[in-house]
Amino acid sequence: MKTRQIKDGIDWVGAVDWDRRLFDSLIPLPDGTSYNAYLVRGQDKTALLDSVDPDMAEELLAKLGGVSGIDYIVSHHAEQDHSGSLPMVLERFPSAQVVCTPKAKGMLMDLMSLPEESFLPVEDGESVSLGGRTLRFLHTPWVHWPETMVSYLEQDRILFSCDFFGSHLASADLFVTDRCRVYEAAKRYFAEIMMPFRGQIEKNLNKLSPLDLDMIAPSHGPLYPDPSFILDAYQEWVSGTPRNTVVLPHVSMHGSTKHMVDHLVASLVERGVSVEPFDLTGTDIGKLATTLVDAGTVVLGTPTIHAGPHPYAANCAFLANALRPRPAFLSIVGSYGWGGKTVQTLTGMLSNIKAEILDPVFCKGMPDKETLKALEGMADTIASKHREQGFS
Ligand code: FEO
C-alpha cells in the first residue's frame, strides 16, 4: 500500500497488518490492526510521527523512499508496535531528532539501542515549528504506558493521539466509514488497553477538551474526521455507568456448573435482566473484556478442581482483576465434589474490583431443587438491586 494523503503536506505512511491475530501474546485481533505513522511537512522542516511494528519496518521505509530528509521523529509511546522501527528509520535519517517525553527517552533507551544524542525530550506543552505548522506536545500519561504523549498540529487542528482513541481494525478505509464497526472495535480496544487506567483516561480527556479539533489521527485503526464520535464514546466508557447486564463467564467439567449457569441465565432473563454468558473453554477474551466496560454485575461460574477454582476460571478472574472493571455487584456460582476453598480463592483474586459481593451459590454434585431455588433468589436480588440503582 502506498502513502495516503490526509491533506496537503500530511500523509499516512503506516502499515496495515491484515493477518495479525494476537497482540502481546494475549489479546485476540479478529480484525487485524494497523500501525499508523504520519509524515508532516512544514515550510522548513519535516516530522515523522511514530514508526510501525518492526515486522513491518520495510513497508514504512519504502513509503519514506522519496523523502529527502526528516528533522524530527516524534515518538508518542515507547511500546514496540510504534517505536520498534525507530532504529531502522534513524539509520536512514541519522540527523533526525527523536522527540518524546523525558520518561519515554529512558524507556526507548532501555528497549532498543538508540544513541542518547539523538533524543530531544520535550516537556508538557512544549512545541516545535516546522515552518507554518506547529506541533504542540501534551503529556498524557497512561494512554497506555506512563510515558505517553500526544501531538496537536495547531494550524490544521489535528490531534495525533497514538494509542489513545485507537482501534485494532485493519481496513482499506483511511477514515471511519462504518461507525458501528469502528465503535465496537474501539470499545473493545478501550476495554483491553485503557480500562485499567480509567481515572487517568478521564483526566487526559479533560486535558484535551479545550483543543479545537478537526480530526483525530490515532496510531491504530481508522482516523476520525468527526472527533466528537470517538470523544463522546470515550466519555461514556470512562464514566463506567453500569447497565442492566450480568456478565457470566463460566466453565463446567461434568455439567453441574453448566446446569446452574443455564438456570441463572433463564432466571435473570425472566426478570428483565440482560445476560452475557461466556463459556471459558472457547471465549474470545476481547469480547468478554468489552462487556465488562459497563456490566452491572459479574457472576463467575466454576467447578472445584483440586480444592480450588478451575484454572480457566482462575485465569478469567486474574484477567478481570487486571482490567479493573467497575461492576456494582459481584458473585460466584459453582459446584464441588467433596470440599475445597473455591469461593475464597476466587474472591481473593478479584480484590481490585470494588463491587458489593452477593452471596455465592455453591452446591455439592448436581444442583438439586434447593440450589436451583437459591439461583432464582440470586436472580431476584440482582434484578432488584439493578432496579434500585436505576441501571438500564
Ligand atoms: Fe499500540 Fe501501547 O501500543
Describe this structure in words.
This protein has 392 residues and is of the alpha/beta class. The protein folds into 2 domains: 4-239, 4-Layer Sandwich (Metallo-beta-lactamase, Chain A), CATH 3.60.15.10; 246-386, Rossmann fold. The chain has 12 helices and 23 strands. A 7-stranded mixed β-sheet has the order 1-2-7-8-9-10-11. Strands 17, 18, 19, 20, 21, 22 and 23 form a 7-stranded mixed β-sheet that branches. Strand 8, helix 1 (57-63) and strand 9 (72-74) form a beta-alpha-beta unit. The two termini are 45 Å apart. It binds MU-OXO-diiron (FEO). MU-OXO-diiron binds at residues 77, 79, 81-82, 144, 163, 219-220.
Low-confidence stretches: none
In percent, how helical is the residue content?
25-40%
- DSSP E strands, number: 23
- Spatial sequence of strands, sheet with the most strands: 1-2-7-8-9-10-11
CATH architecture of the largest domain: 4-Layer Sandwich
Mean pLDDT: 97
Rg over CA atoms? 24 Å
Number of domains: 2
Jot down its keywords.
single chain, alpha/beta, Metallo-beta-lactamase, Chain A, Rossmann fold, 2 domains, binds MU-OXO-diiron
Give the structure's gist in a few sentences.
The chain is of the alpha/beta class. The protein has helices at residues 57-63, 80-83, 86-92, 102-111, 179-194, 198-208, 227-239, 256-270, 285-292, 311-323, 342-349, 369-389, and strands at 4-7, 10-12, 15-17, 22-23, 27-28, 33-35, 38-41, 46-49, 72-74, 97-100, 119-121, 127-129, 134-139, 149-153, 158-162, 215-218, 245-250, 274-279, 297-305, 308-309, 329-336, 356-357, 361-364.
